[in-house]
Please model this.
Amino acid sequence: MDDQGTTRCARELPTPGTPETAPQTQDTGAPAITISDLAQFAPEPTRTVAEPGNVGIAGLPTNFVVAAETVIRDGELLGMPIRVRFTPTGYDYTYGDGSTAVLESAGQTWKALGQAQFTPTPTSHTYRISGIYPASVDVRYAAEVDIGGGWQPIAGELTSRGRAQNIRILSARTALVAHTCLERPAAAGC
Model:
């Protein structure tokens, strides 16, 4: 208080580069948030599942399905409480045999698609040679944040690297026969 009864406050300005001087958005005055700021909230890596039972037949389609869904995480960023919503936008398939695919689908089971096993699907892959292949799917997410004023989109995508799953591809031989093993249990191959 000075000699005229007026209270004066002085505030020391923070050193440039400290969180207090983070870039401000023009709309809210809140710090600007980038997609890289949200990496700490990223969804868990997905696990690739191949039908049927992570086993396939060389020369026939193996169907891939990834369990990726919208995820909401709560936490703190730049000293503020925040909610982050991640929505899957794309899937980067690595089949383990040198083949890859960039798709917009997580895939569905043959049953959900109303298809017979070993029929092509948008996410299936045909292995040419028997063996064990480490397949994975990286999921790309769009992000939105809520710092108290509703959901706001963040530019860019965040990728969650998928865990590799060994897919066993077998060889199969077929033969034309006159009768099934139920009809003639003692027949060759029964």
In short: The radius of gyration is 27 Å.
